[in-house]
Amino acid sequence: MTGDDVGHASPVPVGETPALFTGRRWFFPSALLHELDPDAARPGRRPRRTARDWVVDFFCFMLAVLVGALAADALAGNPHVPDGLAVVDQVAGALACAAVWLRRRWPLGLAVALTPVSFLSDTAGGAGLIALFTLAVHRPFRCVAWVGGVNMAQVPLFYWVRPDADLPYLVSVVFVEVLTVATIGWGMFVRAKRQLLLSLRDRARRAETEVRLRAERAQRLAREAIAREMHDVLAHRLTLLSVHAGALEFRPDAPPAQTARAAGVIRESAHEALQDLREIIGVLRAGEADDTGRPQPTLGALDTLVAESRQAGMKVSLDHRVEDPAGVPPSVGRTAYRIAQEGLTNARKHAPGTEVAVTVTGAPGTGLTVRVHNPPPEGEVPPVPGSGQGLIGLMERATLAGGRLEHGPTPQGGFEVRAWLPWG
């Protein structure tokens, strides 16, 4: 019997096997694997014994046989036990040792059945102790107290009826009682270890759930912010379209050149409004948006952002290589601006004193690339409080814009944020 021999309890579904057990299933008890990964068990059937289970069960069987053999040898020299009773004792002990293989399936039934057998058979004592240990591991204390109490209560009576030939009565009783208590205590300790492991597993699952919920909340907030920004832009487009359409309605005699110019503005505004409306619908599928907010900066405000960062004491180099900055769609420009802003903010918090490089490149048809890179900081950086959800919001922005964003440490020890946004 090993210290991590565990049993059954009400399983808690986990959905997948923990990484700790991947590739090591043979090393752990099948009951523990069933507790941590009940979905892996075959429906309606008990989990198969692992290699570790077979080793432990064989060890328990051999231990029961060894104790039974020692007891059988003591019976041969005990004048208080007739030869016929010794034969019956050994037969009952052999059957009890064979029953040890059933200890995982029926721990309570085996312990109850071996209680009277242990009273009648000296050679079944080892199997009875193993059954008590298994009961303490697999069942709650209430069952262990009843069965263990009966076993301990019959020990004085057993040695009164069949005294030991070598030891005094009191020494025999005390030795067996202490051995029984130690066996039950060991089993309860193993059960407590198993419950602690399951408790830690549940706490880890709750922590993972909380992290996932925080990430989902950050994504929802980012979508709501994007929806507010789109509301301002869409309202501007529709207002412009309405003004020019109204001018055509009330000035039917306008010159052809003016009419053509107004029609071009209406066509362009309608096209832009349609694109913005598609983005709004994509945002509203996951969260509600309100009609409040303020206009957000675009790519044209990137120079101002860098200048403000420099005034705040940061070392920032800007490499702006966009062929037609004015032709960048407003939604793409806003996303690029927010990516650069978040990258500068993170560099200011986690790598103070370093020179941050901001690079913006792109052209119509190839897309817009934004890269923010900072080298590793010199010396120890004091911890800065933060939610850690800013990059999650940027990834959501880039995804909604049809692009992608990657971030992480560089081989040199710095940190880089790189995003690609479509520019068609």
Automatic annotation (TrEMBL):
Gene3D superfamilies the record matches: 1.20.5.1930, Histidine kinase-like ATPase, C-terminal domain
Segments crossing the lipid bilayer: 54-72, 110-136, 143-161, 167-189
The reaction(s) this protein catalyses: ATP + protein L-histidine = ADP + protein N-phospho-L-histidine
Record bears the keyword ATP-binding: yes
One example GO MF annotation: kinase activity
Occurrences of domain Signal transduction histidine kinase subgroup 3 dimerisation and phosphoacceptor (ranges): 223-287
SUPFAM superfamilies referenced in this protein's UniProt entry, alphabetically: ATPase domain of HSP90 chaperone/DNA topoisomerase II/histidine kinase (SSF55874)
Superkingdom, taxonomy of origin: Bacteria
EC number assigned by the record: 2.7.13.3
Entry keyword annotation includes Transmembrane helix: yes
Keyword tags: ATP-binding, Kinase, Membrane, Nucleotide-binding, Phosphoprotein, Transferase, Transmembrane, Transmembrane helix, Two-component regulatory system
PANTHER family in the cross-refs: NITRATE/NITRITE SENSOR PROTEIN NARX-RELATED, NITRATE_NITRITE SENSOR PROTEIN NARQ
Protein name, per record: histidine kinase
Organism of origin: Streptomyces indiaensis
